[in-house]
Amino acid sequence: MNLPILNTLASLVQDQKVAVPSDPTAEGTYWFPVQASTLAEKSDWTFYYIYWVSAFFTALIVAAMVFMAIRYRYRKGVWEGEASPGHSWTLEITWSIIPFLLTIVMWWSGFKSYMYSDTVPPDAYTIQVTAQQWSWEFEYPNGAKTYKELHLPVDTDVTFVMKSKDVIHGFWIPAFRVKKDVVPGRYTKTWAHPTMEGQYTLFCTEYCGTNHSQMMVQVTVEDQDSFDKWVAAQADPSAGLTDVEYGKQIWSQQCIACHSNDGSVVIGPSWKGTWGTEREFEDGSSAIMDENYILNSIVDPNSQLVKGYPPAMPPYKDLSQDQVDGLIAYIKSLGN
Ligand code: CUA
What we know:
This protein is α+β, with helices and mostly antiparallel strands. The protein has two domains: 1-68 and 90-235, Cupredoxins -  blue copper proteins (Immunoglobulin-like, Sandwich), CATH 2.60.40; 243-333, Orthogonal Bundle (Cytochrome Bc1 Complex, Chain D, domain 2), CATH 1.10.760.10. It is 35% helix and 18% strand. Strands 3-2-1-5-8 form a five-stranded mixed sheet, with no helix packed on it. A five-stranded mixed sheet has the order 4-10-9-6-7, covered by helices on one side. Helix 6 packs across helix 7 (321-333). It is elongated and about 95 Å long. The protein starts with a helix and ends with a helix. Bound molecules: dinuclear copper ion (CUA).
């Protein structure tokens, strides 16, 4: 069992070293996951300081309240209270100065760590982040793109330049204490300096629609060599894959939130058994599910909206011809 007080004391020792855990979440405290970035200890210090100041004064005030309730309780026959003492400057100044100093520390520590988290280092390794309903896309400097996973080199400043294709999403990696909204129509930036190899989770933390809770990504922090190898391999995602395998990979990264491959309905129609069938649309027209219909559904999804489904899909105009071919092959492989 975790004893919060022991963890708190440990977190107050600034230069603590934490061993690489097999399950990072197991190494966290009652309140927080493991501290896996340089921001984490700063941010946690502020939290624990406020926490213990609050705990101390809660105990003090409740104790005084209970004491006075007993000491000055109603007694039969005693109607007049003792006269209160007059004004006391000593008391006034004491209970003004002490809280003032305590809250100044809160402000200073919060302000310092906020400025630290909001000041992006100029020479950092930059990853472009694109959020949309309901997936993340990470683009690395060599052009590699990943969706369900994010890799980062350990002990390196990494900047995230973020944009949204539709609504507000929230970029949140609890183990790093990094959290920043991703807003349509503008870029937002945040950064992290991961300090510990391991696997963590990225969440979306703005409610962005039905599959908001599916916007989770595994974050892997690894040594520079492994990272370089990994990011080089991602630059050519179709290498060694057949069209069907490549299509399935794209589906599992970008389409799975809305389209199933087994007949179940998520948001949009399932792809199973649709190839070559006649599709009926909201406007009364229909078309056969073939290459051109699939291409059109990807780039202009609402022009042929299948009857009974919401116009929920954004246009995916930046898929490459290879990717579209892969998706067509995959849908074909799911039968008719
Ligand atoms: Cu994206 Cu919630």
